[in-house]
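Quick illustration, no need to memorize.
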Amino acid sequence: MNKIGFIGLGVMGAPMAANLLRKGYQVTLYNRTAGKADELVKLGADEASTPAAVTRASELVITMISNDDAIREVYYGENGILSSIMPGTIIVDSSTISPSLARDLARDVTAKFADFLDAPVTGSKPAAEGGTLVFMVGGDKAVVDKVEDVLLAMGRKVIPMGPNGSGSTAKLAHNTIVGINTAALVEGMAIAASGGIDAAAFLELVQSGGAASKMAELKAPKLLNRDFTVQFSLELMLKDLRLSSVLSDNLKTPTPILETVKSLFQMADSMGLGELDLSALAHCYEQWINKRITNSGAQDSIPSALDAAADSKADSSDRRRSGRLSLDVPLKLSVYQWEQEGSFSGQLIEGTLCDLSESGIQISSKSPLEKDMFVVIHFPQDSDLPPVTGRIIRIEASGETFRYGCMLAGLAPYQRLQLEAYINKQTISAG
């Protein structure tokens, strides 16, 4: 079996295909995004224009795709795998997908008198590059034996898990542990940082004691160097945790830790960290404790404005409180009030952002407002801040201008840090 098709050339797929080429296999490639195959073609691969063309040219087709929807497109699309599969072809899916979809693929591939294995992998980008992946395989053991040599050209171990769907189930259970371990590592580091413990010394302790883990081994250097380039992305980890949550519900298996950790990754993803390495979860904790959990002297591989908020908070707050600098950021305010006699809603007025307090913000306006009135605050476009709801809790009049203390409602911790970063930037500019 020498003619191999490979579909999906992302962070994992490209180095896996490269290892097949290095081991002498004839490889035909397809990727949905153009240009991803260029370097592999230089190594001797052929590139096809559709999944169907790859399948026609191959005895064995391996797919490594990001999610269920993309898998359906590659298999069931107009020029998908199933449109051209020949009897006797073996299809191996190494993606992380739902077990139910893996079983559906097995059923439909088998109906074409071909064979299907769900064979996801463990070991992120470094293992894919080094050819040390571990395959967990669901499907007929005789078929597993036929493709084992090909899989070992990309990995170091092949573990049969049972019938079709078992490989996908094992992968979701495995990645649940990976996500929990990552969150546990970062949370422990946050405790240590809050207590004044050096990050490098603490990580040495972790790896020397009962808290040691593969994730600590992989992520310690990235955290210490603040290198959040992708080994395995945060958004893909969140995708796997969501799939695992659905699976555990279907299996009626309680997973309270999974649900908590999934929520942590959802917070991180909502902060725009999804395309970074999953170790970027550290940014969440750093905003909550208002300090870095690792080397404050290291420069992030991808700079974060929120780090600037934490680093400059004390200095900028002192500068603002000193009264020597005037913060004057124009705002738009949509004014609302509870329904009562004389109430009104939907009025848009001009305002100015004066400062950030512990409980909210201070704004000024020439429009008279009332205590307990609700306003929606619209920040300038360059702030990248969403509209924020505030309730007026304090009013000070000075001539024709009113200064209002507004308590902010429903403001997530990261949004507060983002707001503070913006205010600090304006303060520095005013100085």
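Residues 303-325, 338-344 have pLDDT under 50 and may be disordered.
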